[in-house]
Structure formats: structure tokens, C-alpha cells
Design a protein that fits this description.
This protein is mainly beta. It contains no helices and nine strands. The chain has a domain of 73 residues.
């Protein structure tokens, strides 16, 4: 069987979520009839997402609806760092703490 390129796209997004994957990650070349997508990511948690996989101008198939669940926070990043201040005065630079989750990675074999 000769290699073919399969494209992935978000067919239905119940929450306005988008695929965060890089454009080259939305394409996979089949090996022995299997195209593997290993880094598909959707940015919002919701139930009812549908992905579409297609061959250029030939055919397509959709996944059954699936859910993306919120990830558990695992990292805290302080940026910017707090600035110095006199006792009893506000800090000269207010720190911001970003909470990062594990993210969502989807792997599909089609």
C-alpha cells in the first residue's frame, strides 16, 4: 500500500474550542495504511467534539463525539517577579502567577 496524506480538522466544537496543533501536526502520512496523529490538542473542555479526517478530494470520516476534560494544574509560573517595596507599601511590581495544566493530547489511529 502506498503512503497517503491524511488531514485532521475539528468538525464540531460545542464550546468554541480550537485545535492548538501546529499546521504540520494536522497532517499525517500513512505507513502500511495507518496515519497516526500524536499531537492534536484542543484548548477548551467540553463534551461533544467531533474530529474529521480526510484524504484530499477523495473522502472523509468523522469521529464519534468525545469529551475534553479540564486538566489538573501541575505547574506554577511567577511572571513578573515581585518588586521591592517599603514596609506597609504595595510592591513596586505586582507578581502574576500562571497556573499551567497538563494540557490535552489526543492520539488517533485512522
Amino acid at each position: 500500500m502506498r503512503p497517503t496524506v491524511v488531514a485532521a480538522a475539528l468538525q464540531f466544537s460545542p464550546s468554541g474550542g480550537v485545535l492548538l496543533s501546529a499546521p504540520e501536526e494536522l497532517l499525517a502520512t500513512s505507513v502500511e495504511g495507518i496515519a497516526t496523529f500524536i499531537n492534536l490538542k484542543i484548548d477548551k473542555a467540553a463534551a461533544g467534539y467531533v474530529l474529521r479526517f480526510s484524504l484530499a478530494g477523495i473522502s472523509h470520516t468523522d469521529t464519534l463525539p468525545f469529551s475534553i476534560v479540564p486538566s489538573t494544574p501541575h505547574t506554577l509560573l511567577i511572571d513578573p517577579q515581585p518588586g521591592s517595596a517599603l514596609r506597609g507599601s504595595p510592591l513596586s511590581v505586582s507578581p502574576q502567577v500562571r497556573v499551567w495544566g497538563l494540557g490535552v493530547k489526543l492520539g488517533f489511529r485512522v
